[in-house]
Amino acid sequence: MPTPLSRLPHVECQRRLGQALVLLWFLNTMGFGCPSALANRTLVPLPIFTTDPNERETYGALLAILDEQAGAVRSLLVPQVTWNSLLGTGGTVYYRRLLTADESYSFFGSHSTRNQANYEVNYANFRLAQQRYLLDGKLEYNNDRTARFFGLGATSREQAETNYALREAAGRFTLGRRVLPALVAALTERVRYVTIGRGVETALPFLRDVFRGVPGEDGALVWAHRFALTYDTRNARETPTHGVFGQIFVEAANRALGSHTSFVRYGLEGRLVWPVVAERLITVTRGLFEWVEGQALPFFELSALGGETTLRGFGQQRFLDRGRILFNVEERLRLFTVTYNDVRTAFEFALFAEAGRVFHTVPDLSFRHVQTVCGVGVRLVVFSQLVAKIDVGFGSEGVAVFSGLDYPF
User: Fold this and answer.
1) Contact 140, 120 (CB under 8 A)
2) Alpha-carbon 265 to chain mean position
3) CA-based diameter of the chain, in Å?
4) With contact defined as beta carbons under 8 Å apart, do 174 and 162 qualify?
């Protein structure tokens, strides 16, 4: 089940993993994996060096352990140790187990000596009870001490950048019913408890010292209920090469039901995956619209643009307001495919362009203050299973680099 439009996945702590996995799979498929005493397992040690607009430079090392059976990756275990001038020494462990093509679970844990932390547990089964139902759940604890806030609206200024720490405990549970082979009706319960504190970046002012009275500046408890209809004819969830995806949803929270804030959120999204030259050249387009209504909405519940899944030339949630509109187009060129230990892996090059803006009311919508981004990407695709990516986006405020798992859309 796709991630709800209103909440983007937390990816800051997983960027180093994504960059390393691109190199990892390249070395593995070229035959540079270390011999293992255990059958069907490949060990790959790698150095780490990354740069992030919020976290600065990070150095370290990791050991990736891939378990391959019957021509497929069955599990991936990646422990790593890092050092960062802002966050101190950190340890991270990522584990993903693919039980079947439709069922998997994963764990991600990361903690630094300066208390930057992220823990996630996920479970998904998309063919439950003879393929009639789907189940998707996630629990997360996150303490992001490098979060940024620039103010609200499409005209928020880069010079108004502030830092804060966002600490949250969150959970999401989705149960869906397959109405037709390509149509799913799903209910989602989403709970998050957020507190706001001072961040680790002393060179920037604290959010509350600059933006006084911003709703949500002290945090909040949010309990939201969501209904979505999803139409999906793509030939694979993780690595599609053709098909159509469409989703429409409504999400509501109410103080009478325990939430600290009341709101109603609406949204729709459409994607087209079109093979221009068989599976060699694929054009992917995406459009989305979202609007949220409510009084005194916490800023972290507003519609957001910026980051690895929306405008890739800006940092995470760079622009915030009640509504957002976005268009993306991406050309994915498959350079070559190799088979190692019966696992097929494709190397892709991508070109992308995207445009979008946030808005406070629908009459505000115009071509003024539209943000545009163009960029390039490198992807490694383990067929029907995993994608590791590095994307470099160029926007009006400079260059942003994102890496991680899964396609951006």
Assistant:
1) yes
2) 20
3) 65
4) no
